[in-house]
Design a protein that fits this description.
The structure holds two protein chains of two kinds. By secondary structure, chain A is mostly helical. Chain A is built from eleven helices and no strands. By secondary structure, chain B is of the alpha/beta class. The chains are: A mainly alpha, B alpha/beta.
Chain lengths: 276, 524
């Protein structure tokens, strides 16, 4: 594990990604304590104040400090995206490995169902689920997890099909091991590399999907300082105060880039052929 | 006489994370015109590194410490990339181990041969094509014009190796490097390739470096044999002498480890009661669909019996269905037919109960693949104990049984050598205290000396436990040393099932005789 971390830090993209992630994690953990203002503190004299010494990233239509809102909002954006990806990946990976293990007609049935689900675009799927389950951040997590699971199942299955043909799985079948043991202990650990890589890349999608849902008004609800919601709110005042739009968009982009870089770095670090 | 290829005091290091590792120590070799030098060594002895060094295709972390490599009057180490391109193929040819990966799957055979001829001999397209057809005919391929239009996946492994040999000889190089050219092929195909090699050599007088781990085989093709041991050259002698009078201890160990059918290792008689009887076993992969016919079965109504404590050999070339039998008997492949085990009748995979699974164990060919890389040794060995009853405290005893230290329990499979991994796989099989162990080519990927140790271990375990073995192999010499009876399979059918003493008799099937002729019995 530590060896993997060292290898990851040696890659430039891994290093930059890890540093960015550490900054984001710091914002999630200590954001409210470090923020210069309270996120909902309204200042009527400072409406649409341009970035400067008072408000480093400017202020919005109610004079709320954008930097403070971003720092506090990190907590409601990044961890939720992370949880959604984790739940979606875990579900998808289990389905994928299980499908590869069962094989034959069952595999065919599961994968064709997944194909059908994947035909619906992720965002549309999430919208559909949120509108059925009701608005709110918790439901958005479920919606994103469900939207992610089929893709993960596919990636995992293709890796698991190779593992399925390995002799150690055959040996386990021949000695009469049960399906749960074979799926979770024999096969799953050997397909972890593609799952981890795929999930880190998907976290960035989740951040954006979350922001999109909030932007459309079905995710987090005002006055929460969720980043997507901040973009949605600032849209009306785009010409008066472009910083209100740019700052949260940049935060979303930065998070997505950080996770993408770590994903890229992990792909190289987990590749055993790269061992020199 | 000036040598065609000379290696002087060559020393090579690989830079690894723990510092430089020396792979070749002060190697000096010469190959005269028209001479074939055999280079023998176990895996990891550095023989392939030497071949790559000669081809100037070393990995990035290789450091040449000292010595020179000369092809005629050319210093190979001083060549620029452009000059190298002109040397490779043109003056120094190479034939690789695995023919299935050395041809480009997206180009036709014709394209690949003519490209080499145009590049290296400066021929026009039309001349190259007609020469290629000539060359393919010369390596005994039927209908060369048709082969030219085919893609690599449309011809067999033996045919692919012939194509590669034809290409290598067609460019008329001074020296050809052969890196285990028959290892990936089955015995009979390999023997034919060797015969072809001998003929082409006589005709062209090309010099060659023949690399192999198989001492018996090398003594048949080479004029001189050099033995490599952990990067050191320990012995060089004419091929005929090395078997009769090996001088170095390492060479002697190699010679002794070569299986010889006349040296029996098992002297007892098997019991009378039948442990496992299989009849009419037919394995079918993939059922016919709406638009395609069913593939022919991999085994056709095979019947065999294994008696208590017996070693039953099952031999045949690749694709003969011998592994399919192992899979059917262990419930890894769907089959039809009947297996009787302990008065318990089995007709389908589902009939195999826990008792059968415990009593019939299988050991696979590749120890790398049969041990889960993410499990420690103790976890691997604990599974059969948990499933079939036993105490985890038995793990040190299991390790000791296969002559491994108890400290290995905490290791990962990748920290073990191939032979040690195979011992773990054997320990896992014996942890269940089985009545029958099926060994599916378990010694094929191992060196001869390691193979001899594994065989010795299996025989010792058999003494202790009285277990019967179904020993699947393609090595007829090896199985004649240990088996009580041998079954010979060919294309899914059993052609012979004889007690081992009858193998020298006249009434063996012609195919069995061909198989025996193809297994190189060491000279001397």
């Amino acid at each position: 594990m530590t060896e993997l971390f060292i290898r990851l830090m040696r890659k430039p993209q891994g290093f930059v990604g890890i540093v960015l992630l550490a900054l984001i994690a710091a914002a999630c953990l200590f954001g409210p304590a470090l923020a210069p203002y309270a996120p909902e503190k309204i200042d009527f004299l400072g409406r649409f104040r341009a970035p400067g010494w008072q408000n480093w990233l400017g202020a919005d239509q109610f004079g709320r400090d954008i930097l403070s809102r971003l720092m506090v909002g990190a907590r409601s954006t990044v961890p939720l995206a992370f949880i959604a990806t984790f739940v979606g990946s875990a579900a998808g990976a289990t389905i994928g490995v299980g499908s590869a293990y069962l094989g034959g007609r069952t595999d065919e049935a599961i994968m064709r169902t997944i194909d059908a689900v994947m035909a619906i675009p992720g965002l549309l799927m999430a919208l559909l689920l949120v509108s059925t389950l009701g608005n709110g951040a918790g439901n958005a997590v479920i919606a994103i997890a469900v939207a992610f699971a089929p893709g993960m199942a596919r990636v995992t299955r293709s890796a698991a099909l190779n593992v399925r043909n390995q002799d150690y799985v055959k040996a386990a079948i021949a000695r009469g091991e049960g399906a749960p043991w074979i799926i979770f202990r024999e096969m799953l650990p050997n397909v972890m590399a593609p799952i981890v890589i795929e999930s880190t890349i998907r976290v960035s999608f989740a951040v954006m999907l979350f922001a999109t849902l909030s932007f459309l008004g079905v995710g987090a609800q005002p006055p929460a300082s969720e980043w997507g919601l901040m973009v949605a709110d600032a849209r009306q005042y785009m010409h008066q105060a472009p910083w209100g739009l740019i700052a949260p968009s940049a935060a979303i982009a930065l998070t997505a880039i950080a996770f993408n870089l770590v994903g890229d770095g992990l792909r190289d670090a987990l590749n055993p052929k790269d061992e020199r | 006489m000036t040598p065609v290829l000379s290696i002087q005091n060559y020393t090579l290091d690989y830079i690894s994370s723990v510092g430089p590792v020396r792979v070749l120590h002060d190697i000096s070799l010469e190959i005269g015109p028209g001479e074939v030098l055999g280079l023998v060594g176990e895996s990891g002895s550095g023989k392939s590194s030497l071949a790559w060094a000669l081809m100037r295709h070393l990995p990035e972390n290789a450091r040449e410490v000292a010595g020179s490599l000369r092809l005629g009057d050319i210093d190979l180490q001083r060549l620029s990339p452009g000059e190298l391109t002109r040397i490779r193929g043109r003056r120094l040819g190479m034939v690789f181990q695995d023919p299935s990966t050395s041809l480009n799957p997206t180009l036709t055979i014709g394209r690949q041969i003519t490209e080499a001829l145009i590049q290296h001999r400066g021929l026009k397209q039309r001349d190259a094509s007609s020469l290629a057809i000539n060359l393919l005919g010369h390596v005994d391929l039927n209908n060369p014009a048709a082969i030219m239009r085919r893609y690599p996946h449309e011809i067999s492994g033996g045919e692919k190796q012939r194509v590669i040999i034809a290409t290598a000889f067609g460019c008329r190089p001074d020296v050809i490097l052969f890196d285990e050219p028959t290892t990936a092929l089955d015995v009979i195909t390999g023997a034919r390739i060797l015969a072809l090699f001998a003929r082409l050599r006589r005709e062209t007088g090309v010099a060659a470096l023949y690399i192999s781990h198989d001492l018996a085989l090398v003594t048949r093709v080479a004029d001189r044999v050099a033995v490599l041991e952990r990067g050191r050259l320990v012995e060089q002698a004419p091929a005929a002498d090395i078997f009769r009078a090996p001088r170095h201890a390492n060479t002697r160990a190699l010679v002794d480890a070569v299986p010889r059918p006349e040296r029996r290792l098992v002297h007892d008689k098997p019991g009378d009661q039948v442990v496992l009887a299989a009849s009419d076993i037919e394995v079918q992969y993939g059922s016919g669909g709406l638009f395609r016919d069913a593939t022919p079965p991999a085994t056709k109504k095979i019947g065999l019996e294994v008696r208590g404590g017996e070693i039953l050999g099952l031999v045949g070339e690749s694709g003969s269905g011998k592994s399919s039998m192992a899979r059917a008997l262990t419930g890894l492949a769907r089959f039809s037919g009947k297996i009787t085990f302990d008065a318990h009748e089995i007709h389908r995979m589902r009939d195999m109960n826990a008792a059968y699974r415990r009593d019939v164990q299988i050991i696979f060919q590749h120890p790398d693949a049969s041990l889960n890389p993410r499990h420690r040794i103790d976890e691997i060995l604990s599974r059969p104990l948990k499933l079939y009853g036993g105490h985890l405290a038995d793990i040190p005893r299991l390790l000791e049984q296969v002559r491994l230290p108890a400290s290995y329990a905490n290791r990962w499979p990748h920290q073990l050598s191939g032979g040690e991994k195979q011992r773990i796989a054997i320990a896992r099989a014996f942890a269940a205290r089985p009545k029958l162990v099926i060994c599916d080519e378990i010694t094929a990927p191992l060196d001869v000396s390691v193979q001899a140790q594994i065989i010795e271990l299996l025989l010792a375990l058999r003494e202790e436990t009285g277990t019967a073995f179904l020993f699947i192999t393609h090595d007829l010499n090896l199985i004649r040393q240990i088996a009580h009876r041998i079954a010979v399979m060919r294309r899914g059918e059993m052609v012979d099932l004889l007690p081992v003493e009858d193998f020298d008799a006249d009434h063996v099937h012609p195919y069995t005789r061909e198989l025996m002729a193809a297994s190189p019995v060491p000279v001397g």
